[in-house]
């Protein structure tokens, strides 16, 4: 399935490489979807074109094995505790895309990992991204002291100085009772 080097444009259709970019997959994976008849294609000369509507509606199968039952609730069985720091920070006006872009860059470079955390989540506060929630999950016996935690949080805040309203941020740290 070779795609012609000429840029063929048909309204409402995209090339396989453009469709791969839209889905965030490799060209090879895109051809696998086409070969498995999961995405219909139209052959135009030597090129394969896909309807934009089909690409936008397409959902890949979940990776890995599907759960047959939900994981059981459990408690932390060590001498320590699991603590969750929740930080809610408003996004400054018209900075939503810049926040997302900055977060993707941080993910790519693996920065701001908050040493001592066992999990970290940054969650959209709502569909308009008016705020973000940062969940930092720690084992108290591995949690660094307050000074080190503050240094890492300050470094994160500096990255987002003109994007997030740190003056109105709300901070809480609570103990987990049960988890999965």
TrEMBL record:
InterPro entries associated with the record: DNA-bd_dom_put_sf, HTH_17, SinI_DNA-bd
Pfam families tied to this protein: HTH_17
Domain of life, source organism: Bacteria
Domain Helix-turn-helix: 13-58
Coiled-coil portions: none
NCBIfam families: excise (TIGR01764)
The name this protein goes by in its record: Helix-turn-helix domain-containing protein
Organism: Dictyobacter halimunensis
């Amino acid at each position: 399935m070779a795609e012609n080097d000429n840029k063929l444009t048909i309204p409402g259709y995209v090339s396989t490489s453009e469709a791969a970019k839209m889905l965030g997959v490799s060209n090879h994976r895109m051809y696998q979807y086409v070969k498995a008849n999961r995405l219909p294609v139209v052959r135009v000369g030597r090129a394969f074109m896909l309807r934009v509507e089909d690409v936008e509606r397409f959902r890949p199968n979940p990776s890995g094995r599907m759960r047959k039952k939900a994981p059981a609730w459990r408690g932390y069985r060590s001498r320590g505790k699991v603590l969750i720091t929740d930080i809610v920070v408003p996004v400054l006006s018209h900075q939503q895309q810049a926040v997302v872009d900055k977060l993707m860059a941080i993910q790519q470079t693996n920065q701001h990992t908050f040493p001592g955390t066992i999990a970290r989540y940054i969650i959209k506060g709502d569909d308009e991204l008016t705020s973000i929630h940062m969940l930092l999950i720690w084992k108290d016996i591995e949690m660094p002291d307050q000074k080190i935690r503050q240094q890492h949080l300050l470094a994160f805040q500096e990255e987002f100085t003109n994007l997030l309203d740190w003056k109105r941020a709300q901070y809480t740290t609570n103990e987990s009772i049960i988890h999965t």
